[in-house]
Amino acid sequence: MFSFILRKTVREGNILPLTSTCNLRCIFCSNSQNPPGVKAFSLPPLPFPLVQQLIALLDPRRKIIIGEAASRFTEGEPLTHPDFWTILSIIRSIYPKTTIQITTNGSLLNRTAIKRLSDMQPLELNLSLNSATPRGRWLLMGDRRANRVLEAADLMAEAGITYHGSIVAMPHLTGWQDLQLSCSFLQEHGATTVRIFLPGFTRLALPELRFDAEAMYHKLRQFLEEQAAVSKIPLLLEPFLWEDWQSLQARVAGVIPGSPAERAGIRRGDVIKSVNGRPVKSRVDAFKRVCKAVHPCLELEGREFPVSFWKEKHDGAGIVMNHDLEWEHVEKAGRVIRERRARSVLVLTSIWGLHWLQLVLPEWERGGARVHLAAVPNRFFGGSIASAGLLTTLDFRSTLRQIIEKRGDVFDLVLLPARAFDSGGRDLLGRHYSRLRGLTGGRVEIV
Fold it and tell me: What is the CATH number of the domain that holds 60?
């Protein structure tokens, strides 16, 4: 079973898990907050022969991802793997033109390591900086050698390595000045973009890790707006929430300096109305259309003439967008509703997703169906966790029972968010979504 899931992860996500070993101890690491029962796998450094087999399953047409926490495998620091450099060399020899994306905490980057990485281009790094001060790195990550990662940032910029900085924002512990210094450091030392994350905590988190999530988001949003007004690189706050969900307007969050989009005159705050003559539906929709196009032609709100530029297919244009709705998921849900000829539909979503989906109800009700939306609180993880990907069948069951008892309805169709389940339809507890069918007389499907 383990081998099957491992290979499935590589094939589906183009993710190469190497190890769950980490040389630092981040206080915000989700692994220490997981309630019992979560089907997450902790990996010792994978044996080199097994890694070789997994490399053969990678898709050269997609970015190869190493070290990103985007699967059921607990990700550690990839550079701790004893065969990391050999593995990287093999990937590059087999897939010479495929971009390799590596997420690292930066503590093992020195001049020699950065020279090796430079020789592996095309490559990009996600640098989990979190704090640019020795005190902050020690407090948040247990890093006693913070100066190494600070020096590495300059070395990467000198070597021409594209890197993106990320900060898990915990100003209630480090102070707002530390956050400001860290953000400014990345802007001034070669980062292409900076992502600031609102941290989450579960019901098992220590008291000092807890905070008022909504109040913190608003403070971070104000902080980011002030920083972005003077920044030369794009700054993003993730997740993209609250007052931002009032519209699906494809407003550009930032433009990477020196990119095709910047040279064409696109700026932060521009609103994309269409790409190659096709109206865009959301920020994500606009971003994907630009990415897929070789010669995108953009109609921008308030501009008299369209803006166009050349780029390779699937290469980045330099346009940075906040994440709202994956429009293909919206369209898929609409197709399922029409194909099932459902008249009474219940769509269960996360707390964060509810307001976005309220904007697309007309899309789903075109055929005459009555569509009811309901947000599902995350009782299993608890705390501030509110994303769809961390909901379980237990959470869906509880909300579904309450709705049916209150309304007395038996829905023709109940739709669940696909990101809460793996490709086999199982949640983080290993439970299949079909367990929910007994609560309603209609179909239950994931989209």
Answer: 3.20.20.70
